[in-house]
Amino acid sequence: MNYIEHIGKYFMMLRQVFKRPQKWKVFRETFFREVEDLGLKSLGIIMFISFFIGGVVAIQTALNVDSPFIPKYLIGFATKRSMILEFGPTFTSIILAGKVGSYIASSMGTMRVTEQIDALEVMGINSLSYLVLPKVLAALIFYPLLVLIAMFLGIYGGWAAGILTDLFYSVDYIDGVQLDFNPYFIKYAIIKTIVFAFVIATIPAYHGYYVKGGSLEVGRASTQAVVWTSVVIILLNYFLTQMLLG
Amino acid sequence: MIEVKNLHKSFGEAHILKGISSTFEKGKVNMIIGQSGSGKTVFLKCLLGLHTPEEGEISFDGRVYSKLDIDEKRLLRTEIGMLFQGGALFDSLTVEENIMFPLKMFANQSKKEMLERVNFVLDRVNLPDSNLKFPAELSGGMQKRVAIARAIVMNPKYLFCDEPNSGLDPQTATVIDNLIQEITDEYQMITVVNSHDMNSVMEIGEKIIFLKDGKKAWEGTNKEIFVTDNQAIVNFVYSSNLFKKVRESYLKESK
Lengths: 246, 255
Known about the structure:
- The complex is a heterodimer.
- Chain A has one domain.
- Helix content of chain A is about 85%, strand content about 0%.
- Chain A has helices at about 5-15, 25-65, 75-115, 115-120, 125-165, 170-180, 185-210, 215-245.
- The radius of gyration of chain A is 21 Å and the shape is elongated.
- Chain B is of the alpha/beta class.
- Chain B has a six-stranded mixed sheet, with helices on both faces. A four-stranded antiparallel sheet of chain B has the order 2-1-4-5, covered by helices on one side.
- Classes of the chains: A mainly alpha, B alpha/beta.
- The interface of A and B includes residues 22, 116 and 123 of A.
């Protein structure tokens, strides 16, 4: 199947996904389960990675700023900008594409090969809406929150790195963080995250839902899902940056 | 009654079903048999609406499936119970939640009423006190029984079973066969079973359809299968020496 066919099939899938849920009570239950599976269970890894990434960005900036003419507050400023503009939304989304993307593709792929999706269809349930819509909404609502936490922890991680390594003073770093704060950048990061969240929930769902074969194919679909989700995030990141900041 | 007229189904170049016609009656266990690749599963999936045939017609008590709108199809599907080959139980749900699932989606009942119904069907399949177990904690036979419980929880008019005995030991397979026959009789359902387990065919097959190369090669009852001259089904059913001897002794006794 060529790429155009895949893209067409993906949009056809989306048409089914965004149909009205058959029973709101069941939808609500599924939605909260997905918030836990896709969101809360990713909180730990996101907090851990963003904290250390912030630390590394601060240390590397400090090590590269050795000229006495460059003010030290630049370290805090650069760490803040990096975390808000790029590391928060994009890096977090790439991590989520790996963690959540493989989970969505493999769980849906397993449901497909063990006929659980057929069972839903035979019962008269719109399986795409039942399985994918709660995932999409959970990701759209929860991931911006995750990204905000990642930004905060990254900046905090940079400050902690300074304290632990003595490469810069706390007061300089805090000055840098407070310098030239532009709320639009937060808005920009949230817009990117919402788009990426949609991609993270739907592309792996597509790969998992249409898998054919057995466990080997489920594994392959899971890998493909992560690769394509990452590729699409990177491409969209470029275009969104052009559109929103260019 | 389920009526199938001149059913054709292809996948690309492969013409799988080549004009199959038959009827399935109420209160009877109807069996579809045939070699692997003969089109049994495709035929069953066409009956279930999971595959759309290119030609032909399937009607459920006069309702022609292809002429129904989406809502009518959904309504019809609530009247269908399906037992999949592997059970197709939802791994993330307990036995109770699995069986309650169709009720939650389609029945406007209170939690208490749903729980009563779940316990009733669990008792019916001889699995009381399994409510809180997960499918992975059950044996293959128990999973099949839970799948039967889920299939009948909505009081379906039509029950479809795909290879209900595959992977089960002979004793458990007999239990499942008997259960299918009993519930068919009790609830006066139209049951269609896809199988190549000859024990099941002989035991519970009140009507048997033999498919060969996508065509209906023979149709009859489990009594007629002993006396038929149709070479295709004789070669298929009596390929084992044991069944050959059973047939010979049956023919001797009947003379």
